[in-house]
Specification:
The structure holds two protein chains of two kinds. Chain A has 18 helices and 28 strands. Chain A is an alpha+beta fold. A seven-stranded mixed β-sheet of chain A has the order 3-5-1-12-9-10-11, sandwiched between helices. A five-stranded mixed β-sheet of chain A has the order 7-15-14-13-8, with helices on both faces. In chain A, helix 9 runs parallel beside helix 17, helix 13 packs across helix 14 and helix 15 packs across helix 17. Chain A starts with 15 loop residues before the first helix and ends with a helix. The model of chain A has no long low-confidence stretch (mean pLDDT about 95). Helices cover about 35% and strands about 15% of the residues of chain B. The chains are: A alpha+beta, B alpha+beta. At the A-B interface, helix 1 and helix 15 of A face helix 1, helix 2, helix 3, helix 4 and helix 5 of B. Bound molecules: FE2/S2 (inorganic) cluster (2 copies).
Chain lengths: ~750, ~160
């Protein structure tokens, strides 16, 4: 292994000081002169015709500067790819929580009073919340014009509420099933859950004297947002500038334009800067939560445990709009078939419009849903065959040269090693008490690709400023850039300061997501640092008249070859007469041939009287490349696992009559410090990764298999299976009761 | 609406402010005094992002009225460090990477300070129990527990 000075060290976060002192500025902390408060009136109905909106009393309220209805934004549609979301509803509202009117006023109180003065007359219509109903041929259409929408991947032959379908597979399903000794078919459901970042969506929009649209937004993909907004409102991208801000948590949920298009119109009409912060009730009812799913898996297997066929259909409830997914569908669905060498497969994922809150991305979009179904299913087959689930997986997992169920071929495959490492750390197979069980599940994910830029500028005081267009939403990208630049320039981490760029500075950045942050940022930072270093050496050679090809940067000094003759680098910076800097632009969108496996094992105790599940221990094994920062890396693992525990055991946005009914953190429980079991982590070292340091991603893999591992542990403990998340005490009791009949 | 005149002490400095009668202490701090370190997460007492110390007790400042600050002694995250440097808790949070997005961090630091003020030697169990009212979605909590225990040790050694 190469030895590094800064890479691989538990370096303190670059944004840490600002964050522990309360100085870090988030969008909601920003105050501009003359800034107004934006507020939205939302529909109480899941589906209704809007007959009349009377804003006259709100308009007349002192301190109110703009009142907008669907008439003021008529025809505007936006989205991340599919443009189907209106800033304000026009003829119909399609979910409870949809925006119907908006105001901008001098204070929060006035804005709220103005909202209360707006009268809306609705004609309530029948609503469909269930995607299975909505798929039926005789269901009414939520979007009769879907074929005209910008961004629809493929025109529908017959317009229906199913607006996109993706499929994966190989071989001949019929052949696979014909070979099988056993065929098992089961259906699994997952709930609507919220990302539960603690900073609600917020944005500030202001049209300056040069007519530029200045924006601060809790959005982790500012360049994409600029494109999306420009296309939606019909202005040149150059007119829009996204300004850097800290983002208070994301988990996939902070990539949508959300209220930005609407606040643009409020700023336009009021001619003042406008700030809009969703309150958490709005977050729970009307943001972009994780899609609920219904998945049916049908598998064929031989008596010896060899899988021959795998057919899966995942129905995602998209809610009223499809605009909050950059891929229109959720590609993670294919992971329902997992890293297994199954010869005959077919996986289908569909998105269905319903009258409920639109779904968005959350940590491994589509994967937790698919993996819960697939890995639950595998355990059940193993049990039917009387094979230990560990052995069964080891038999079917891909090894070097094997193609996965949905056709991916990876090199340096560490699937079995990762599972074995998890089983060792979890002491799998050691005796357990009564009603205590262990369960496992696996995931795999290669980091996504993308584009980014980095700038490195030497400062006269001997420090370095590194610029990045990526906004750190908590995962630590600033620290990654810091460490790479420090490493390559031979500096300590505290000599490198990160200053984010606004969207004017570079052409594009893909933004955070798909576990790409470390992959693209580390490469761009490396290239920029190398370029800056060459510039520094060139400047040193000019000052001293040395041959530039034979200089070495070491310990803040530029040495002439291997001699003792040197020049201090700050002297070079101060005296060369120009700015020494290096920039880089990286475009790395290649589909990777290395992936990262994750194997997780849960140990639970179940109280058969009450159905209560107690998670005793949780082990997470990860196949990693070079870990850039062990404490940051561990933070992603712990955070992802704990989020997965919430998904497995407690979280669900409950929908009654199309309305989310648990709208506070008092009712929508997420794990607290008191809910966390002993967490164990094992890292399996792999030599192959991406970029100059051979890295792999970690952000999403930690989260996707947790629920399946827990479901499998519950069955191991008490012999019954729960097919729907979250696995609550009620469901456990019901399953026990059923098994006793 | 008539504003109320409130005299209060914030981070050791006496302050006079005008507040709306129904305005929360959180709004008063953030919008009136530009002390934006306390964060608004849920605004209904369930997340702890807005935690401040008021007369020796931690409160969710979103649930307290600004008017109640009259004659009170309030500590916010902005008052945790001293001119001599960071509070040992802040240092321990940095070293343990007990923060990611940071939005919950001011609340956790303030709650932890109040724990260590009243119980300088907490057990791991006590830390978990005391901080269960503060939500964090990023870290998985483990490192926050370590950081608080480290800070307690550090402070004992320093005394
Ligand atoms: S904002 Fe006060 S408890 Fe959440
Ligand atoms: S660090 Fe993000 S919520 Fe705690």
């Amino acid at each position: 292994m190469i030895s590094y000075n800064v890479i691989g060290q538990p370096i303190v976060r670059s944004d840490g000081f600002e964050k522990v002192t309360g100085r870090a500025q988030y969008t909601g902390d920003l105050k501009l002169p003359g800034m107004l408060w934006g507020k939205v009136l939302r529909s109480p109905f899941a589906h209704a015709r809007i007959i009349r909106v009377d804003t006259s009393r709100a308009v007349g309220l002192p301190g109110v500067h703009a009142v907008l209805t669907g008439d003021d934004t008529r025809g505007v549609r936006y989205g991340r790819r599919l443009f189907d979301v209106p800033p304000l509803a026009e003829e119909r509202v399609l979910f409870a929580g949809e925006r119907v009117a908006a105001v901008a006023a001098e204070s929060m109180e006035i804005a709220q009073n103005a909202i209360d003065l707006i009268e809306v007359e609705y004609d309530p219509l029948p609503a469909i919340a269930d995607p299975l109903e909505s798929m039926k041929g005789d269901a009414f259409l939520l979007h009769p014009d879907v074929n005209d929408y910008v961004g629809l991947p493929k025109k529908l032959e017959k317009v229906s509420n199913v607006f996109v379908t993706n499929t994966w597979g190989k071989g001949e399903l019929d052949t696979g099933f014909a070979q099988a000794d056993h065929i098992l078919e089961r259906t699994y459901t997952t709930p609507l859950v919220h990302q539960a970042y603690l900073e609600p969506h917020s944005c500030v929009v202001f049209i300056d004297e040069d007519q530029r649209i200045q924006i601060w937004a809790a959005n982790k993909a500012p360049f994409a947002l600029r494109q999306q907004l420009a296309a939606a409102i019909g202005v040149d991208e150059d007119r829009i500038r996204l300004n850097p801000t800290y983002i208070g948590g994301d988990f996939g949920g902070k990539g949508s334009p959300m209220d930005v298009p609407l606040v643009y119109f409020l700023a336009l009409h009021s001619k003042r800067p406008v700030r809009m912060v969703m309150d958490y009730v709005e977050e729970f009812t009307a943001a972009n939560p994780r899609h609920p799913s219904v998945t049916t898996v049908r598998s064929g297997v031989l008596n010896d445990g060899t899988l021959t066929a795998w057919e899966a259909r995942i129905i995602f409830n998209s809610g009223a709009y499809g605009g909050f997914k950059p891929g229109v569908n959720l590609g993670g669905a294919r992971d329902v078939a997992g890293p297994y060498k199954i010869p005959h497969t077919f996986v289908e994922a569909i998105q269905v419009y319903t009258n409920s809150v639109p779904g968005g991305h959350m940590r491994g979009p589509g994967e937790p849903q698919g993996i819960f179904a697939g890995e639950s299913h595998l355990d059940e087959i193993a049990r039917i065959l009387g094979i230990d689930p560990l052995e069964f997986r080891l038999k079917n997992l891909v090894g070097e040269g094997d193609v996965t169920a949905t056709g991916s071929l990876y090199r340096d495959v560490k699937a079995k090693e990762t599972l074995e490492a998890a089983s060792m750390a979890a002491r799998y197979g050691s005796p357990l008490a009564m009603n205590v069980g262990r369960g496992m599940a696996m995931g795999a994910r290669a980091p996504g690709g993308g584009e980014t830029h980095v700038g490195v500028i030497f400062q006269k005081d001997g420090t370095v400023v590194a610029r990045t267009p990526i906004l750190d939403q908590g995962t630590g990208t600033y620290t990654t850039v810091n460490q790479v630049v420090a490493e390559e320039l031979g500096l300590s981490s505290d000599k490198v300061q990160i200053i984010p760029w606004n969207t004017d500075a570079v052409s594009f950045d893909t933004g955070i997501g798909g576990s790409r942050g470390t992959r693209v940022a580390s490469q761009a930072a490396y290239a920029a640092a190398q370029n800056a270093k060459q510039e520094l050496l060139r400047a040193a050679s000019e000052i001293r008249g040395w041959d530039p090809s034979n200089l070495v940067l070491k310990d803040n000094k530029v040495y002439k070859g291997n001699t003792e003759d040197y020049i201090d680098f700050d002297f070079v910076v101060q005296n060369c007469g120009f700015d020494i800097q290096g920039t880089s632009g990286i475009e790395d969108r290649e589909q990777l041939t290395v992936t990262a496996f994750c194997a997780q094992i849960a140990e639970v105790a179940v109280d058969v009287e009450t159905g209560q599940i107690k998670l005793l221990r949780f082990t997470s094994a990860h196949d990693v490349g070079q870990v850039l920062n062990p404490i940051g890396h561990q933070g992603q693992i712990n955070g992802g696992v704990v989020q997965g525990i919430g998904y497995a055991l407690m979280e669900e946005l409950e929908v009654e009559d199309g309305r989310v009914s648990n709208v506070t953190f008092g009712d929508y429980k997420i794990p607290t410090m008191a809910d966390i079991p002993e967490l164990r982590t094992v890292l399996v070292q792999s030599k192959n990764g991406v970029g100059p340091y051979n890295i792999k991603g970690i952000g999403e893999n930690t989260n996707t298999a947790v629920a399946a591992a827990i479901a499998n542990a519950v069955e191991d403990a008490i012999g019954v299976r729960v097919y729907s998340l979250p696995i609550t005490a009620e469901k456990v009791l019901a399953a026990l009761r059923e098994s006793n009949v | 609406m008539a504003k109320l005149h409130v005299e209060t002490t914030i981070n050791g400095e006496s302050t006079e402010i005008l507040v709306d009668p129904q305005q929360s202490l959180l709004e008063t701090l953030r919008d009136g005094l530009m002390l934006t370190g306390a964060k608004e997460g849920c605004n209904d007492g369930n997340c702890g992002a807005c935690t401040v110390i008021m007369d020796g007790r931690t409160v969710n400042s979103c649930l307290v009225l600004g008017a109640e600050a009259q004659d009170a002694d309030i500590t916010t995250i902005e008052g945790l460090a001293t001119p001599r440097g960071l509070h040992p808790l802040q240092q321990a949070f940095l070293e343990n990477a007990a923060l990611q997005c940071g939005i919950c961090t001011p609340g956790f630091l303030i709650s932890s300070k109040s724990l260590l003020d009243s119980n300088p030697n907490p057990s791991e169990e006590e830390v978990r129990f005391w901080l269960a009212g503060n939500l964090c979605r990023c870290t998985g909590y483990d490192k926050i527990v370590r950081a608080v225990l480290d800070a307690a040790k550090e402070m004992k050694a320093g005394n």
